[in-house]
Structures are given as C-alpha cells and as structure tokens.
Amino acid sequence: MAAASAALPFAAQAQTVPAPQTPHGMMHSMADVDSPLLAFSITEEVKSAPDRARIGAGVTTTATTAVEAMRANTAAMNNLIAAARRAGIEQRDIQTSGFNLSAQYDYTPQQQGQPPRLIGYQVSNQLSVITANTTRVGALIDALVSAGGTNIDGPSFFLADPDASLDTARETALRRATERANRYARAAGYSSARLVSVSEGGGFTPPMPMPVMMARAESADAGNVIQPGQVSNGITLNVQYRLVR
C-alpha cells in the first residue's frame, strides 16, 4: 500500500499536464494535406465609358539655319498651346512628348561623286494633350489643326483611375475561380476545393486610336463624330486550390 500511495501524487500531477496544442492551420487531416493541388489562372474583364482622351499634336518647321528653324517652331508651338488652352485644356495636361532638330541635305550631288549639300534644318516638336471632355474630341482636333498642328496622332481613350473599376472584377474572378475549382474537385472524386493561394496580375488595354486623317475629315464635314465607346480593363488571378475529400 505504501508503494501505491507513493505513486498517487505522481499520477495526479501527470493529469494536470496540458494537452498538446494543434498549431494554427493544422486542422485539416494528413490526407487533406497530401491531396492534389490545382492551379490555374482566370481573367475577368470589365468595360467602362472612358473619362479621358489623349491626342498627340505637333508642328514641323524648316529654315536655312538651326536658329531660324527653332524660332519658327517656337512661335508655331506657342500658337498650338494657346489653341489647346482656349479649348479648355489645363496647362498640366499639355506635355512635350517629342522634340527633334535635324540637318537636311540634298543628296543629288552624290550622283556626280560629290558629298551631300546642306540645305537647312528641320525642327519637329510634339505635344501630348489630355482632355476630360471626351464628347468634344473632334472639336479639339479641329482647333489644333486650325492653329497650325500638322502632326496629329490619336485620339486614344482611357480611364483616369483604371483600378477603381476593378473591385467588381476581382470579386467576380475569385467567385468564378472557386466554382471552377469545385467542379474540378468533384470530377476528380473529391468533395470540394480549398483556396491555398492567390496572386493578381492583368492590365488595361485601350482600344486602337482612330486613324488621324479619318478623324480630321469626318470632324470637319459632320461635326463631332468621334465616339469614345468603351474601354476594357482586365484582371487576372493566379489561384491555387487543394482538393478536399
């Protein structure tokens, strides 16, 4: 009996030892952990009316000297910028996008074995103009051309904040991904699919700009016929699911 009574304190003490804790995230069975992984990508596209339009406009001038060509170009560009400002474009939305000064040569003397002859200099200066008035793009092009713009490019339409339109696309893409993963799981003999990881990709692809000469001709003959339409903004989710028994 003495031996038995001596063992009791030890037994009682052993019963007070806390049970081992299951680490967080280890609630699934080993069979679940060892089940197959399913990985795929899913894309969701959302279309929205654009709230910005970008137009390229510039002038090219030539003169016998580089200084004269520069002066002529500066005067022409000032007229172009003034026309954009009169059309309601903010100064912050007018940006130089390209500038080039190059010598011009006559290569005819090469036919007689002579070096090319310098005949002058050419200056090309290009602006990028952004407007928030997407319904008046045709009128803006008319104003730029009337002010001497000869190098017109665009328009291209876009969203000032493309990410703001993606929240719904994110939710829809994840819902579709989960539905697809569950279909795969059932087809493979499992009950469901559990999301393991998700990463985001994707981007915004604006429509191709309208041909410039067509935009100018239609604008002049029939008023504002340039239509903003809609722009596409897409999100791609790269997801990974574990198949669950």
UniProtKB/TrEMBL annotation:
InterPro entries: 26kDa_periplasmic_antigen, SIMPL/DUF541. Pfam families: SIMPL. GO terms for biological process: DNA damage response. It comes from the Bacteria. PANTHER family: PERIPLASMIC IMMUNOGENIC PROTEIN (PTHR34387:SF1), SLR1258 PROTEIN (PTHR34387). This is SIMPL domain-containing protein. It comes from Sphingomonas lacunae. The lineage of its organism: Bacteria, Pseudomonadati, Pseudomonadota, Alphaproteobacteria, Sphingomonadales.
